[in-house]
């Protein structure tokens, strides 16, 4: 597998070699990768694809909260190693798993149209028909995310929150087969992609729980030097999703946040205006800094003919207006600076220290 595939290009940007797609082994990851493969085959009917599945650190360590492992690339490192060794040509990720700074030589060549980015409540069968508000006091809610726990503790102080790990299948099994949890919180996008929408009891709006940076969007990571692959996947970029996710990633990067601190976002594109709400929380949700900013987005602005490679928080989107990309990135940076000026650094530092000490 480590041999580089024979490469040929017909000179018109058309790739004629077998393209190896890297993915995690989980069922959801395979479903996501298969969906991208189908889209590529529709667009390039003669394309030959081979899917290479592998396990990551995050898949192997299942008895520790993600925020405690202290590794920024829990679900991406092994895949990127394979990309670096030319064992695969592109990797399909959940964008929220990708750090805001990628290793040298890699870039995100496509961000696909976002699925519902919100979190969802999945109830134990005995609680069918209820919402979080209706659950008995002291009911235990399972979540592996500091971000979800911080917001929901503040919003539903009568409930208790405990860590739950494992892939979607494992977490649902832990919920259904035991009495440990009254409900668990999962990404609505993952449940929908798995065909388990019927398990969603409640979708949490931004007033209850804002989502993670990049949540609900799929990303294709490639070697930056592979111009033909970059060109091939760039057609899958969804401009609105790209701009929203650049603003979100720029916000997180400026805050120096990660999965070991509670940071949440909400973005919207309306009438050529991009709105970004960002927030940081203490672990118990009692301390919170939150603000909203907006910027005008001109998607019709002609993309300048330039050989200069422009990367925005790890994303290469040469076919989208540079003015729009710059505006989205600036929005995230400026909002983060506003929160930092109000004391966000202290909240995040305390949250990180308390989480490390637990």
Give me the oligomer status.
single chain
Order of helices and strands: EHEHHHEEEEHEHEHEEHHEEEEEHH
Radius of gyration: 20 Å
Largest sheet properties: 5 strands, mixed
> Number of DSSP strands?
15
Which runs of at least 5 residues are low in confidence (pLDDT < 50)? 1-13, 58-72
Short account of what is shown:
With 358 residues, this protein is of the alpha/beta class. The chain has eleven helices and 15 strands. 33% of the residues lie in helices and 22% in strands.
Topology:
Elements: E1 18-24, H1 27-43, E2 48-54, H2 57-60, H3 66-69, H4 77-84, E3 90-94, E4 106-111, E5 119-123, E6 140-142, H5 146-155, E7 160-162, H6 168-177, E8 183-187, H7 188-193, E9 202-204, E10 218-223, H8 227-234, H9 239-255, E11 263-270, E12 273-281, E13 288-296, E14 311-312, E15 315-316, H10 322-341, H11 344-357
What do these coordinates show?
- By secondary structure, this protein is of the alpha/beta class.
- Helices cover 33% and strands 22% of the residues.
- It has helices at 27-43, 57-60, 66-69, 77-84, 146-155, 168-177, 188-193, 227-234, 239-255, 322-341, 344-357; strands at 18-24, 48-54, 90-94, 106-111, 119-123, 140-142, 160-162, 183-187, 202-204, 218-223, 263-270, 273-281, 288-296, 311-312, 315-316.
- The strands form 4 sheets. A 5-stranded mixed β-sheet has the order 2-1-3-10-4, with helices on both faces.
- A hairpin with a 6-residue loop joins strand 12 (273-281) and strand 13.
- Helix 9 (239-255) packs parallel to helix 10.
- It is globular.
